[in-house]
Amino acid sequence: MAFDNLMDKLQDAFKKLKNKGKVTEADVKSAMREIRMALLEADVNYKVVKDFTATVSERAIGAEILESLTPAQHIIKIVREELVKLMGETESKIEFSSKPPTVIMMIGLQGAGKTTTSGKIAAQLRKQKTKRPLLVACDVYRPAAIKQLQIVGSGLDIPVFTIEGSTDPVDIARQAIKHAESKGNDLVIIDTAGRLHVNEELMEELQNIKQAVDPKEILLVVDSMTGQDAVNVAESFNQQLDITGVVLTKLDGDTRGGAAISVRAVTGKPIKYAGMGEKLSDLEVFHPDRMASRILGMGDVLTLIDKAQEAFDEKQAIEMEKRLRQNQFDLEDFLVQLSQIKNMGPLSQIIGMMPGVNAKALNNVNIDDNQLSRTEAIILSMTPKERRNPGIINASRKQRIANGCGMRVQDVNALLKQFESMQKMIKQMTGNKAMKRKLKNLGKFPF
Predict the structure, then answer these.
(1) How much helix, strand and coil, in percent to the nearest 5, is found in the chain?
(2) Nearest alpha-carbon partner for 189 in 155, 160, 152
(3) Sign of the CA dihedral 418, 421, 425, 431?
(4) Nearest to residue 325, comparing CAs of 231, 433, 398, 415?
(5) Together in a domain, 319 and 347
(6) β-strands 217-223, 133-138: how paired?
(7) H-helix or E-strand containing 72?
(8) Are residues 359 and 422 in the same domain?
């Protein structure tokens, strides 16, 4: 994740306070020096860092330590609260027009990820609020830009409005609104052209589109990997177009993450979404409190729950709960669970959301997402009868299964051994009355 290095440095700063019985002013100053350096190295805006550390210092020195907290926990608590304030305090939702269609204008530099992000937002809002989103291709300059949006739209089953041969993005946007009104599209997302850098020609074009369609939202898409430049770009676009929000892309990559901390403070405009991967489903609503917890290595259980609720089928969960209580869990059930876990995203991302996971230790662990696919392939090479009753799988059946999925017999043996151990563990759990009560909650939340 983007903040792994920052997380490590902040935790190193907090460790030095752990064994102290009382936090002195000198201790706070020492910790603030390290936090300041960590934030600057993460490419957080200098003025933002200066104001942030001053506020944290003032609170840490002037406040009484809660009896239930150690000095280190006290500082962490203050740092977390100030990080949340810095990034916006609460989730900023998309504003919808009282009269459809709601128009969202996507802007940003070339390569920031506007086109893919347009599709991601359309898909997410279709789940939540809208019924018939429409994507609009207004990038008439970049080669294959229109085709790219059409591919994105096709993958999501969302229509894309284009005018073949037109080189006037303002007219395309205007005609798209008329089209949406006539076809009943209640959400219009306009994918505008970008440039390699901010210039007058780009700004004039975007201002003309804004005037023509009167968008409810103007979302600036910025590449987190450009660090402080992303904040400078956001400031320039905001001055010219008065944006309503920011979408940060590539926050899952090897980036310093300073843009996520700085952009709200510098522009005064909220971060609305964070792109966490290349898949069309890899878009998260930006929650400042959850992001602050991630930065401080506290995990992000709420986002993990959101992902699980999206990936897991409620009816299947209720059925699974019954089968677990009755000791009927077999490889058919295991296959269903594997598929749902895969839908939640990369394992490294999921594990990184769990509280207490050490980022440094995680870097030394080879988390192979392909292992899930290999396990799935082995199970799919079995007959339904073998999945329901793995005990019948003898040497000849193992060889057939291995040949069917392109694996070795040793791989099949390893899976069967792991599954046997899992069954024993489930049997022990379901024999415990307290655990039986907990299993009933699986029907409510299958995790």
Answers:
(1) 60, 10, 30
(2) 160
(3) positive
(4) 433
(5) yes
(6) unpaired
(7) helix 71-87
(8) yes
Which run of H or of E encompasses 411? Answer: helix 409-430
Q: Tens of pLDDT along 191-208?
A: 999 887 888 888 999 999
User: Does the pLDDT at position 147 exceed 80?
Assistant: yes
Give residue 240's Cα distance to chain centre. Answer: 29
HSE-up (13 A, CA, CB side) for residue 37: 10
- Phi, psi torsion values for 441, nearest 5 degrees: -75, -15
CA angle 156, 160, 162 (to 5 degrees): 160
| Residue 72 belongs to domain spanning | 4-87
Distance CA 109, CA 272 (A): 18
Report how far residue 121's alpha carbon sits from residue 213's, in angstroms, rounded to the nearest whole number: 19
Q: Is the pTM of this model over 0.70?
A: no
Within 10 A of 283 (CB to CB), how many other CB atoms are there?
21
Q: Is residue 183 domain-shared with residue 265, that is, in the same domain?
A: yes
| Residue with token string 């933002």 | 48
Question: Which range, of 244-248, 249-253, 354-358, averages the lowest pLDDT?
Answer: 354-358
CA distances from 296 to 91, 186, 292, 340 (A): 19, 40, 6, 28
State the CB neighbour count (10 A cutoff) for residue 93. 12
Write the CB contacts of 309 (distance below 8 Å, at least 6 apart in sequence): 445
Q: What is the DSSP letter of 312?
A: S
- The Cα-based distances of 403 to 134, 214, 377, 385, 410 in angstroms read 46, 61, 11, 18, 12
Cα–Cα nearest to 351, from 413, 294, 286, 296? 294
For residue 418, give the CATH number of its domain.
Answer: 1.10.260.30
92 domain residue, yes or no: no
**CA proximity to 94, closest of 288, 286, 293:** 286
- Which strands make up the sheet holding 133-138, listed edge to edge? 160-161, 133-138, 187-192, 102-107, 217-223, 245-249, 271-275, 283-285
206 in the same domain as 66: no
DSSP character string of 158-185? --EE--TT---HHHHHHHHHHHHHHHT-
Give the whole-number percent of the chain exceeding pLDDT 70: 76
